[in-house]
Amino acid sequence: MKGRMIEFNTSNGQVFSGYLSIPEKGKGPGAIVLQEWWGLVDHIKQVCDRLAAFGFTALAPDMYKGEQTDSPDQADRLMMALGIDESEQILQGAIKALLANQACTSKKVGTVGFCLGGQLSLYAAAADPDMVSACVDFYGIHPNVNPPIENIKAPVLGFFGEKDPYVTMEAVRELKKNLDDAGKTAIFYTYPDADHAFFNDTDPNYHQQAAEDAWRHLRQFLAENIS
């Protein structure tokens, strides 16, 4: 890993941690990276490092406060135990900490999330619309997180697998319709042979072609929209 763990404060004085990766040149536009249901595992840290390699200053807040797992049952328990009020505090604290960091050159951030984090990416863009100028959702899901889409100001980029049993194509179409009906800018890419977690190269569902295509679109989208 090229980055490091840092601590940041929330508005109510609590202290949380996250993984920060900075470009080799020392500064760049800010991106918040949001974890899958496993926790702040190495894969998410590597996404931060990859973004830093392309010039972004990336921060992944630890939404589980130090807990992580490789058990689906435990991951489901951790995800369902995630309180939305505390999650909002963590997200706001992370965004403010990143924008205040001298390595961040932008006045707003992009949010990039996977699985649980994909839904949190939408939530962050809706909860803090004046601080988020780009929102990326990789197959986002959480039954209790319902972002107020009407509040989103940032353009939304979504990536989904047609074989995903958790985020079905019906759910994808409904999300796209809701964004369109609310007058939001939303571009979705769906991959016919891809399953849930297709971007995670440590997961059995990893789909190299889909992941590489999504990465290209992601980099361009962030470069064009983080301001």
Automatic annotation (TrEMBL):
InterPro entries on file: AB_hydrolase_fold (IPR029058), Dienelactn_hydro (IPR002925), Dienelactone_hydrolase-like (IPR051049)
A family per Pfam: DLH
Ranges of residues in domain Dienelactone hydrolase: 16-224
Q: In its keyword annotation, does this UniProt entry include Hydrolase?
A: yes
**Keywords, comma-separated and alphabetical:** Hydrolase
Gene3D superfamilies in the record:
alpha/beta hydrolase (3.40.50.1820)
User: Which molecular function term from Gene Ontology is one that the record holds?
Assistant: hydrolase activity
Instruction: Indicate what this protein is called per its UniProt record.
Output: Dienelactone hydrolase family protein
